[in-house]
């Protein structure tokens, strides 16, 4: 049933009146868009005029309904706040019926009937779960990433949700930090492109449609740089590094239209992000022109007292609001303290008006004043969840997100007639496979395990034998013997190993990035049998895989691949799909190398592997500087040859474009996709420059034997950086271009910018 708007006594007349009576400027230039904006602004003026200070403050308050599996457990106090018009938004209610019930209270039982805004963490799918965000990033497939967020938006909005706390656009270079799983990896250029695709997917082209929701770029800012990879930890970095590396994905999200921003938990250079005027007002609003609203992260206004930044909650409220926060998630401090802060002159009423207006503006843009129940349609909800086409997209995304890390002697793809032993704690798993923060995705019974995926692909009569061998964690080896027996009877062993879903994500930092529990010991026992060994990994972050890499014949990084994950793994193992994913983050050899990422500086004493005296060099004495698998790396069942890299001119001026071409040939005997990557090195600058930076990429499909010329163009804008005086511009000088299959690409050309 489609719930009808029941009561908007105060607002509907205002709205109707405005629409019919507003006089618009009659000039020829006045477009429909400006008329609509005028109507909206007049409506908001009129509404704000009628609101008491308390009601305006109410719009800045967000509480969780604390739903669990048995239903809503909204604190009765919240209901009272809601009835008193002191609550503007709720999160963690996630059904058409549930949101309807809360909305009905807001519309019918409050003085002005202002509708609530419903938020929820829709991170990598709502019901149909796609691979974790880091996995999606490994596809480098922007259209598919946009499609994935579109599907999430379709499903979530059908469950009454107006606003997602995504995309997470934090650059992350430290795999100890569990939240690397939620972002797009370590690289600025790739993260910028992905941030834009995700915002577009969530918000669509028109927020007033009931299948679009507000996006929220989080966590602003520099949360991914938490010291030592420990979640919530402090960040201290130069403004140059902040602007060059951590801010661009936020700016990109804003440029793509992101309606809201979320503050970060961390303190940045001594100031908690939630109280940081420099971030929230000077940069976000004044420099970038952001017009949406800023929400805090969970209780982070309150946490400013623990940071040692605010002497008490009242001061925290004052600092947050004055810094530029518009909505307080879960602290209740705006609710309790803002009234008095205004009375005391510590927070201006105009600042409250600004915050309330930004929030009401979004409610208006979503069409909630016209029909507060427009997202509460239980029939649509039922029809929308798990549509066959969504599951198909999820499978496609999962196939494209997987990265083939090793494939000796072409052990993959497997022949369907081989006798397979499927071993490991994740081989039959349909719980962890959808990963952390999987919204309303069903786990057991819905997600497809690798075992089911293979069985489905090969048919029920397949010669597939399974043994779990051990748990993900723990020390129990009592099931090793069964796994060994199973492996002995097979032609090839496929082990599915990794982390449990709660080992990555929020508050899941690790100092040991080895496979947990006794999984490595299980590998060692299976290896002794001497059968071809394929290891499929499911995890939320780069792991340290030197051992696995040394013993496995093939290694596949499957991340947490989502609802259709097992089917996608099966397709990949048996060659129904030729792997094309490339790592969006560097895999270290060991934890001691962390942070390790590709776009480092050279230092004054670079290590040269084959150079003469190497003692006093920037290196470790116990391990090579190189990662185990570099950024951009990933193999295919076919092979690609790069040749004839050319540039159209050796010298470029600041107004010209440089055209770059390279020939890529599929030299293997299978069709396949390749992600062609272009990196630039600025050889010297007014500040030191990274050894290479990704500037372009293109995903191409080549039939076996086929070649293609791939062209790119660059201009001086692509060479810009924060120079010594912090102006963002390119400097004249020498540059190198590298094009190839990963960040260690070897084909190079030199050019001069002058
Ligand atoms: C997380 C956010 C999330 C919020 C609401 C916090 O703990 O840091 O990413 O959006 O909770 O669930």
Describe the structure.
The chain is α/β, with parallel strands linked by helices and 754 residues long. It folds into three domains: 59-380, Alpha-Beta Barrel (TIM Barrel); 402-593, Rossmann fold, CATH 3.40.50; 640-753, Immunoglobulins (Immunoglobulin-like), CATH 2.60.40.10. It is built from 22 helices and 26 strands. The protein has a six-stranded mixed sheet, with helices on both faces. A five-stranded parallel sheet has the order 4-3-2-1-10. Strands 18-26-25-20-21 form a five-stranded mixed sheet. The longest helix has 19 residues, at 32-50. 53% of the residues are buried. Residues 121, 165, 218, 297-298, 506 line the site of beta-D-glucopyranose.
Count the strands? Answer: 26
Question: Largest sheet, if any?
Answer: 6 strands, mixed
Task: Give the strand order, joined by hyphens, for the main sheet.
Answer: 11-16-15-14-12-13
| Number of DSSP helical runs | 22
CATH first level of the largest domain: which class?
Alpha Beta
Query: Which percent bin holds the helix content?
Result: 25-40%
Count of separate structural domains: 3
Please tell me the overall pLDDT.
94
Strand residue percentage: 15-25%
Taken from the alpha-carbon principal axes, the silhouette is globular
Structural class: alpha/beta
> Which molecules other than protein and nucleic acid are bound?
beta-D-glucopyranose
Indicate the radius of gyration in whole angstroms. 27 Å
């Amino acid at each position: 049933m489609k719930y009808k708007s029941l009561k908007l006594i105060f607002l509907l007349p205002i709205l109707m009146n405005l629409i019919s009576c507003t006089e618009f400027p009659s000039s020829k230039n006045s477009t429909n868009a400006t008329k609509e904006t005028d109507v909206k602004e007049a409506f908001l003026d009129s509404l704000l005029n009628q609101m008491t200070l308390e009601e305006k403050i109410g719009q800045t308050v967000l509480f969780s309904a604390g739903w669990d599996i048995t239903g809503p457990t909204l604190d009765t106090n919240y209901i009272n706040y809601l009835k008193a018009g002191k609550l503007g938004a709720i999160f963690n209610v996630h059904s058409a019926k549930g949101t309807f019930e809360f909305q009905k209270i807001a519309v019918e039982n409050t003085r002005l009937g202002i509708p609530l805004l419903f938020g929820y963490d829709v991170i990598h799918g709502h019901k149909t779960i796609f691979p974790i965000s880091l996995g999606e990033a490994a596809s480098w497939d922007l259209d598919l990433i946009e499609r994935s967020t579109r599907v999430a938006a379709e499903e979530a909005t059908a469950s009454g949700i107006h606003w997602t706390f995504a995309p997470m656009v934090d650059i992350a270079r430290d795999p100890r930090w569990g939240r690397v799983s939620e972002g797009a990896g370590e690289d600025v250029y790739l993260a910028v492109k992905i941030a834009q695709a995700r915002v577009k997917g969530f918000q669509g082209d028109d927020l007033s449609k009931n299948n679009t929701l507000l996006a929220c770029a989080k966590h602003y800012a520099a949360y991914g740089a938490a010291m030592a990879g420990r979640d919530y930890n402090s960040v201290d970095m130069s403004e140059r590094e902040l602007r060059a590396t951590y801010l661009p994905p936020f700016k990109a999200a804003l440029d793509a239209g992101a309606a809201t921003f979320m503050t970060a938990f961390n303190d940045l250079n001594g100031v908690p992000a939630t109280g940081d005027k420099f971030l929230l007002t000077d940069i976000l609003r004044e420099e970038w022109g952001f017009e949406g609203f800023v929400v805090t992260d969970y209780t982070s206004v309150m946490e400013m007292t623990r940071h040692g930044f605010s002497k008490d909650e009242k001061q925290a409220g004052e600092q947050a609001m004055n810094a530029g926060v518009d909505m307080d998630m879960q602290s209740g401090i705006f609710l309790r303290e803002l009234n008095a802060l205004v009375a005391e002159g510590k927070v201006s009423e105009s600042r409250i008006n600004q915050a309330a207006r930004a929030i009401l503006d979004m409610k208006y843009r979503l069409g909630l004043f016209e029909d507060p129940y427009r997202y509460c349609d239980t029939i649509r909800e039922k029809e929308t969840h798990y549509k066959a086409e969504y599951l198909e997209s999820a499978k496609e995304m999962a196939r494209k997100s997987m990265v083939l890390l090793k494939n000796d002697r072409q052990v993959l793809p497997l022949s369907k007639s081989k006798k397979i032993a499927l071993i490991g704690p994740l081989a039959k798993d349909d719980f962890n496979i959808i990963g952390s923060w999987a919204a309303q995705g069903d786990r057991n019974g819905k997600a497809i395990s690798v075992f089911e995926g293979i069985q489905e692909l090969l048919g029920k009569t397949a010669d597939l034998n399974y043994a779990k061998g051990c748990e993900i964690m723990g020390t129990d080896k009592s099931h090793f013997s069964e796994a060994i027996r199973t492996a002995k009877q097979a032609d090839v062993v496929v082990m599915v190993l990794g982390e449990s879903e709660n080992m990555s994500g929020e508050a899941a930092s690790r100092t040991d990035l080895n496979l947990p529990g006794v999984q490595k010991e299980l590998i060692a026992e299976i290896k002794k049998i001497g059968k071809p060994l394929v290891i499929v990994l499911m995890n939320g972050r780069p792991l340290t895989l030197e051992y696995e890499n040394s013993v496995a014949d093939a290694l596949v990084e499957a991340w947490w691949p989502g609802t259709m994950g097992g089917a996608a793994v099966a397709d990949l193992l048996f060659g129904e799909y030729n792997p094309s994913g490339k790592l969006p983050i560097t895999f270290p050899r060991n934890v001691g190398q962390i942070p390790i990422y590709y776009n480092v500086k050279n230092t004054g004493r670079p290590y040269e592997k084959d150079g003469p005296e190497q003692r006093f060099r920037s290196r470790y004495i116990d391990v090579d500087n190189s990662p185990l698998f570099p950024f951009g790396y990933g193999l295919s069942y076919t092979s690609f040859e790069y040749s004839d890299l050319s540039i159209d001119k050796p010298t470029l001026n600041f107004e010209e474009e440089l055209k770059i071409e390279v020939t890529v040939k599929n030299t293997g005997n299978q069709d396949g996709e390749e992600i062609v990557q272009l990196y630039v090195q600025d050889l010297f600058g007014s500040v030191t420059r990274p050894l290479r930076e990704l500037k372009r990429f293109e995903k191409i499909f080549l039939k076996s034997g086929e070649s293609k010329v791939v062209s790119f163009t660059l201009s001086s804008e692509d060479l810009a950086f924060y120079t010594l005086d912090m102006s963002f511009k390119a400097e004249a000088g020498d540059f190198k271009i590298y094009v190839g299959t990963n960040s260690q690409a070897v084909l190079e050309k030199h050019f001069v910018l002058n």
